[in-house]
Amino acid sequence: MTIANGYAITPGVSGISAPVSSTGAAEYTSLELYDNSEVDIIDISKYGGGSPFLTMLTKFGRSRNGGKYNELGLTERTINNFPEIRYKEQDSESQTYTVNAVAAAGTAGANMTIVFTSTVGLLPSMTLRIVRTNEQIRIVSVDSATNVTATRMVGTVTNQALAVNDVAFVLGTSVASGTAGIGDVGSVAADRVNYIQKFVESVEIKDFQMMSSKVGGNKGAIIDRRMKQAAVNMSMQIERAALFGQKFSGVDGSGNPYYTTEGLVECAKRGWSDDISGSLTLRTLEEGLAQPMRYLSPNNTTKFLLCGSRVRPAISALVQSQINKEDILDSSTRVETLTIGNGKYIFIDSPMLDETSGFEKHAIVVDPAFFTVCYPTGEGFDGKFDGKTRFEYNQADSTYANQKGDYVAYVGFQNANANSTALLKIVV
């Protein structure tokens, strides 16, 4: 293993064989002689410590909003629209328009027809800047879905002929004295939907496994350990879906519906994706990270950068002197940060972005207030409940000789504003 800037830049090699899946009974048998006073049981699995991404996401997101769950910008909330997480995304009005026909230079201060690919969102009295020539024009009237009448050279830059694909950038309005009510524009809100996914981690123990195997044996400790381990496994299921899940609805062989939820990777693919691994420099890194930073959630200028196992060494080699260690006081967390443009990135090394998942060379940008964990609500014989993880004893299928239960959770993600996310390949 090679170390650079305090991080391994080549994967380490282990002589330990991969574990082999077995039954729950085999696990209990392997712990048969367990006693806290005699034997230590140590978890050596990669993810045995829980779910660092989701823990950080919900903790930090709440702190950005005063710990409240019912205000704009939350990262954890309950909904009442099972099995869908349905919401709308509304973008700002169009700010650029594309010229669709050659136009002569015309005469400064005179009106002429200009053809755009679309005039939706344009109003009389708007001023536009032709990006290529820097000429400023003013809309006199919107004549059709593609044509406007505009005054040329409303400014100091000389008017020039317009070419197809020239871009006009909206500056604002310049309304004449005595004029009011020029009209209003808006953008259509687009429907978005994701699904709530049901996660289950089952636990089963038989009567012989409940019996103490020797004098002084602590069978309760074995059962307690198994329950805690199942809870961790449940959190790992949810985190894998949060990262890699793909949206789908289907029906099983018995005609029962099931749903899978879309996670961060698929959301980021709709946003900004780039491969800068072949030309990784400080400039290309900042350019890649600057794009999603233009899309910020309300009252928040901080994003997470989830790093694959080979990403941090590569970034550290470029910007080690610019990485800061600081305390985020409202989340009581010590973090490393990097300032890019108008915002700040918090580094998180994700243990799931490794060779196993195929994302060891990638970094994922996530806005902790846009990407929201959602739980459905419901009401049954025992009253109201929500979808957060809980343990349910399966009394119907249990006997004195065989006890069964499930950890169950109903979770999905409101993966809003894909433009605020990014999937970047950093390492060749």
How does this structure look, described?
The chain has 428 residues and is α+β, with helices and mostly antiparallel strands. It has 2 domains: 1-90 and 187-428, no CATH class; 96-173, Beta Barrel (M1 Pyruvate Kinase, Domain 3). It is built from 7 helices and 25 strands. It has helices at 24-30, 52-63, 207-210, 219-244, 264-270, 282-293, 311-319, and strands at residues 3-4, 7-8, 76-79, 84-89, 96-98, 111-115, 126-130, 136-142, 147-151, 167-173, 190-195, 197-206, 248-251, 257-260, 272-275, 302-307, 324-328, 333-340, 343-349, 362-366, 371-380, 383-386, 390-393, 402-415, 422-425. The strands form 6 sheets. It has a 7-stranded mixed beta sheet, with helices on both faces. A hairpin with a 4-residue loop joins strand 17 (324-328) and strand 18 (333-340). It is elongated, with a radius of gyration of 29 Å.
How would you concisely characterize the structure shown here?
It contains 7 helices and 25 strands.
Q: Which percent range describes the beta-strand content?
A: 25-35%
Largest sheet: 7 strands, mixed
Poorly predicted sequence stretches spanning 5 or more consecutive residues: 33-37, 65-74
**Roughly how many Å is the radius of gyration?**
29 Å
**How would you describe the shape?**
elongated
> Please, what is the average pLDDT?
80
Give the strand order, joined by hyphens, for the main sheet: 15-25-20-16-19-18-17
The N- and C-terminal alpha carbons lie at a distance of: 18 Å
The number of domains: 2
Helix content: 10-25%
By DSSP (H or I, 4+ residues per run), the number of helices equals: 7
